[in-house]
Here is the input.
Amino acid sequence: MQKLFFTNQNRFQLFSACLGLMIGLILLLSSIQLYHKAKLYNEDSELLDGHTLIIQKKVNRASHLGLGSPNFSKSEIEVLQSQEFISACSPIMSNQFEVIVEIDDPVIPAFNSNIFLQSVESEFVNISPSNFGWNDSSIFVPVVMPHNFLIMLNTFLSASQLPQLSESLVSNVEMNLIVGPRSKRTILPARIVGFTNTFSSILVPNSFMKMANLKYASTQAQLHSQIIVRSVDEKLGLLESYLKEMGYESGEDQLFVSRLKSALSLTLMFMLSLAVLTLSLSIIIMIQYLQLMLSSLSFEIRLMLRLGHSIKTVKSKFFRYFIFVFILTALISFGSFYFLSLTIDHKLISSGILIKESTSIWTLVSLLAVFIIFAITVDIYTKRKIKAQFFS
Amino acid sequence: MKIQFKNVCPHIFQELSLKSDVWNNDFTIQDGLRYQLCGPSGRGKTSFLSYLLGYRKDYKGEVSINNRTVSEINIDEWVELRSEKISCVFQDLQLIEKLSIADNIALIPKFAKGYGLSEAEKMLADLGMPNKWNAQVKTLSFGQKQRVAIARALCKPFDLLICDEPFSHLDAMHKSKCIDLIERRLNEEKAGVLLTSLDGENQLDLKSIHL
Here is the structure.
């Protein structure tokens, strides 16, 4: 039957479909791999996470003259929350008492400094709530440090001729927070549980901040000069316009990172759409080729059925042929993609961009998904066409 | 195998008020018996066979095989009927021109007990076609093709052999050889035969049915 069905076939259309399938698969695998790499690369930079910005009111001459408040009122916060391009929004709470951080560890020279604490809703901190929670019985205050703090600490250690610390090492450093006015200072043990690029101050849990403000602050009025907002993924532009219109501002570097994230997300989205489009087209061409083949072989197929072959037997010949073609194309595509991926990784590494050489499991999952879609389409289509020949 | 035609009439004959042994009549093919469908061209011989084999349904009335109407027979049962119970020599032969004789015969799903490709080759040699086994079908004359089609049908297991004008292009000598071979296989399989022809055949002891 193999000889009967598959010799002397014009394979130009099949070749075109295979080429399309190959391009589509390489694009699909590459976009998934690129997404994986972007996730892996400097994971803490939250390269593909939502656009999170800290906004404040622009300081101008009027605010110096006391004509406009630099703080956000409750109604201003509510208006912000109601905007369609904002998916989440929360005021940032600041300490209203004196805080000193003191490093109390034998491996690091004594170090203390007045610092500024902030707290936000836990959803804006990329740390598990179980690690970043506090209550009266907690034995230490969990803190999230800005990356810049580690850089500053390492600069200090380097100047003191001491070895520098990595993120994991610094997490084990013993430190204290000394809170309250000079007359009633309290020493609270603290531990670094994570790092952030979004905030430039040290973060503590909301529950701790509320307690400390109540206990140690001289005033009970809580003012919100900063608000953290997360924009809806594709609506960063609308948020930017809104901030400009309202006279709010955000750090330029945060905006730049957000624009970069948008561009990367768009590029990945475009690549993925192109891959899906190319794959769909090539599968359609492949099915058309199958249709052409089944039409040109209608006499042969009918004869097989008349001689007593089952629909399943005849169908399996075509199914196996097309599955073989797909697997061969997929293998060539995966090989090309893997080679391309390795080449790019080596180029990046040689340019000093440290990236892990790994292939995402999702590339294989997507390949399997395309295979399943293809196999089901071929199976259903072939069965339907051959069945139509059975009683003719 | 018992085949019944109950008041069957092809749609194209409906306006002619035609009545024959088969059309608009009750007609039964009994297990193991031999029949010849006689009639001039255009009286529906090939249609009769197509109805019997389930290829066409452009008729009124009822066709049943082993007491089940053809519409009740499911695909798996049809596969079994076509592969093991009914063997056909088609009027248009249904050979694949681009393949060799060997490849054409190898297309059958199941050989009869004691038969295989070597027996088929020997069968063709007996029918006057030695040394042609690997020849492409398109290089053969129509008479030779008819003998290949007969050999292919006889290699299968069957309870009923259907032959649609199988000897139309054969000379007397080859026709006689074919009839001898058919006779032998019918006896081996203890099967019946249904043969259509323009003129009467009597060498197979056939019961004539007029269309």
